[in-house]
Amino acid sequence: MSVRCVIGVQWGDEGKGKIVDLLAADSDMVVRYQGGGNAGHTVVVGKEKFVLHLIPSGILHGRACVVGNGVVLDPEQLFAEIGDLEAKGVRVRGRLFISDRANVVFPYHKALDRAGELKRGITKIGTTGRGIGPCYGDKYARTGIRVVDLYDNGLFESRLKTNVEEKNEQLRALGAEGLDFGKTLREFRGWAKRLKPFVSETLGLVNDAITSGKRVLFEAAQGALLSVDHGTYPYVTSSNSDATGISSGAGVPPGCVDAVIGVAKAYTTRVGSGPFTSELDNALGEKLRQIGGEYGSTTGRPRRCGWFDLVGCRHAIRTSGVTELAITKLDVLDGLDTIRICKGYRVGGKVLRDFPASLSALEKAKPVYRDVRGWMKPTTAARRMADLPPEARAYLRLLEKELGPRVSMVSVGPERKQTVVTGGRL
Ligand code: GDP
Ligand code: IMO
Ligand code: MG
Known about the structure:
It is a single chain. By secondary structure, the protein is α/β, with parallel strands linked by helices. About 30% of the residues lie in helices and about 20% in strands. It is built from twelve helices and 20 strands. It has a ten-stranded mixed sheet, sandwiched between helices. Strands 14, 16, 17 and 18 form a four-stranded mixed sheet that branches. Strands 3-4 form a two-stranded antiparallel sheet. About 50% of the residues are buried. Magnesium ion binds next to loops. Magnesium ion (MG) binds next to loops.
């Protein structure tokens, strides 16, 4: 399999960073194709912890890392990330290729994101405040500024002027302060200069890699249930954070991907607002949060925790054509005597097995659970399936049977070595 993709099949933070880092060891190129600085992908290497936001998680293996045209790029955040990596001895220069077609996140996008959320009050989405929605909004309204446009002096200046004027009106209407055009122009001329060595015609780079048989790994951000088209709209992010975004977000033919690895936690988490049928808004949810360290990698916000949700995961598997699963954080369930799996949503007297489109149906849905026995033994030292307690193997087999794709990897801790490669159907 030379072209693979890693996506999250829940609401993000499934452990994609860890899985991408592992698979990057036998990849030539790692490509991000959507999202932006809203992502926080953690990779633990020995005692060192890296949190990647815009740079693909393949950088730690020294792979060619591509930020595709579908990503929204915040130069300030990018250079902070490059600085952090370099301070830890990771070489980025010469390995990072940024699409000339990627849209740029400006300070007004971030200001509008935050002011918009404040205005929404209790109906807020709970965004990361990284300007993602407003930047994609401009992209689709065809008023965005792409990386390549930064180097077209006249065009850049006039577009930026129009945008700053328009956004300042919007910001003031929201009770926020406007931006200074001259200052923003100078600031971004500076960023453009620093970005230059990384800017590349990535369409050619990625397509040539694929056609010449190189091992290419696509890395999604967020999770399939946060996808703007297939997720819990409007409580989603503003891109196709499932495998459907690869073709448009990297400029590669649909159908070029040989394997889609769906990453799922052994339970479920969500940050921000929106429906979450199997949520545990109680002491047990708090216990999972503490044991699992469930606090946002980007914003530090506490993550909402709940049981594994087959309904949501099946939907994600179907829309992205997931071919295999990586189940992470199995160890977090080690101390529970009973584990529940949500196998259906009860809505108005009916039990739904398919994920509903309607927000009110999702908000009304009550979980229908199946209870399974916990294993009550530590799993963090497991390296082979045979090392796992029988109840843990039974839990994984049940997930495989209910979801369809085989479980190819099981993660039992944040470190690279805390991984079981299953080697076939369970
Ligand atoms: P991502 O956004 O999908 O890459 O996930 P995050 O990095 O936001 O969150 C996953 C968190 O779980 C990180 O802190 C990882 O280091 C950690 N993690 C990953 N796999 C495991 C695992 O199997 N067990 C435990 N306990 N932690 C894990
Ligand atoms: P990774 O890649 C979890 C959530 C936000 C909010 C919604 C919209 O680390 O899995 P946005 O800032 O994108 O407009 O926020 O999406 N969200 C994430 N949740 N993990 C992420 O990324 C997320 N990126 C965005 O919390 O609910
Ligand atoms: Mg994350």
